[in-house]
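ugh ok fine here u go
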Amino acid sequence: MNYDKSQTSGSILQPDAAGHISTAPRESQRFQALFYSYANAVYRYHQAAQEHQPTRQDYEEWLEGLPEAIRKGMAAKGFEQCRTILGFTRYVNEKHDVGMEAYVCRLMGKQEYQEFKEQTA
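structure:
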């Protein structure tokens, strides 16, 4: 059986994923589809942080909440290099009341998101 694209939200699943999924063993195709959908939604969540135009103040606040050793490493990298660090992008989104779980659930759809969570529990 080949993978049926209608099994997941077409807006989330990347075109190259369908080819990969269709070559996976039949029993794992649904999980692979859900995994790709989830991963793509998480990627979009982190990319969305740039819409909030992170500032140096955001960066400084984020640094304050990090353990000392990590804080030193991130401070050495500087603001520009940290703009795409997942921890920082999540901080920026959360600061603007955009939670990752709700964002991903909205993109995937409740039913698909719940199915993914059940399969990864």
